């Protein structure tokens, strides 16, 4: 098992996570804009706590990317970014930059807030360790039309 802060990037479907009652008593649920992520990140820094993965897929995840989300509808991308900043000491610098340039960037773009186009990469560089790939993907996501992005993605695969 590895600590979440040691992994460059990880995507988990939180409804598939399992934890002991003892851990959940030690890391109580907090009502935040991203309840599940908040719980997972706070638990990851406790000594002896880690993630274990099943050797084969146990679920099929349907991505709802692009659909309205409660967390975004209430506070928008800025609320999510503020929550994630509060988790800065819990995640590693690569994860910090990656989340800003992927998840937060997508939500900001969907809101059409062009301040994020410049602000998010600057924050990722100042407080994280973004890869060139993440910075380029962030820029492409904002500047290139969707059909061109799909074509590029297909060529890369």
Describe this entry's structure for a reader.
The protein is mostly helical and 157 residues long. The chain has one domain (4-56, 72-156). Helix content is 56%, strand content 0%. The protein has seven helices and no strands. Helix 3 packs antiparallel against helix 4 (93-111), helix 4 (93-111) runs antiparallel to helix 5 (115-127) and helix 4 packs parallel to helix 6. The radius of gyration is 16 Å and the shape is globular. The protein starts with 20 loop residues before the first helix and ends with a helix.
List keywords for this structure.
disordered N terminus, 0% strand, 56% helix, single chain, mainly alpha, 7 helices, 157 residues
Overall geometry comes to globular
Rg, Cα atoms, Å: 16 Å
- Mean pLDDT comes to 83
What's the helical proportion of residues?
55-70%
**What percent strand?**
under 5%
> What string, H for helix and E for strand, traces the elements in order?
HHHHHHH
How many domains in all? 1
| Biggest sheet descriptor | none
- Cα distance, first to last residue? 29 Å
